[in-house]
Amino acid sequence: MLQFFDYSPEVKFAMEHKKPILALESTIISHGMPYPENYETAQGVEQIVREQNVTPATIAVLDGKIKIGLTAQELQLFSCNNELYKASRRDLSFIIANEYSAGTTVAATLFCAAKAGIKLFATGGIGGVHRGDAQDISADLIEIARTPIATICAGAKAILDLPRTLEFLETMSVPIIGYQTQVLPAFYSDSTPYQLPTSINDIPSLVKILKTHWCIDAATGVLIANPIPAEFNIPSNEIEPIIINALQQAERNNINGKALTPFLLAEVSKLTQGKSLHANIGLIKNNALLGAQLAHAYFHS
Predict the structure, then answer these.
(1) Residue 275 designated active-site
(2) Residue range 2-300, CATH number
(3) Quick check: is 51 catalytic?
(4) What are the structural domain ranges in the chain?
């Protein structure tokens, strides 16, 4: 298995010297934002993590190798490559065997991070149960349930069916913890009507819960919902009609499967005249900050 993994010098140094590491996904770069915003955001996110004395490990597949951490040159080349695959866990063997390159989804990133021994992961928003009757359920939820890693996110993406996503996570016994919130944030929006089972207001308490969860061998991941900062917040009643419009566009164009989420995010960005892209950048940086602070505290506790 080791022959398929390649660690950046920065991550390798952190592992050898037992430094805290935060995993980061790469579909936000490859499929979530246009160039150059994706590159600038990825650079900014990694810098935020480093400023907390934590090593960022952006995970991706390059030429058939699972990269645990990207060098500065790799990150730049990856960001402007418009021929990248979008890899969930099921796609990894095909992409690796054919020596392709890909952005890794939440599910694939969790799988790779677990193999690398990383315990904390920050992303924008997770996938979930899609709206409608198609039974389109993101593999992100399954991977969160079976991978003992803490995922820091701004809730599930607002384009999803949020109540059914919460129900699915409950069925899979995944703890969902609101950080300084009692309700589920919805990516662009800092609040929804959906109450969370647990709310924690400080990082030491989060660390204690994570360590206890894995000490009792609960085996699942933990989802930490971190609301988008107020200055980037788009209220639900403002974004919802736009999402419905984007969903209708997708249906008319017969867009589904792994192409659906990138299409919807791009369509929402267009319909909001870039406001949603600005929000996306703000929330991922906010999640990276919390993730890095949590990784530092977890490692030193």
Answers:
(1) no
(2) 3.40.1790.10
(3) no
(4) 2-300
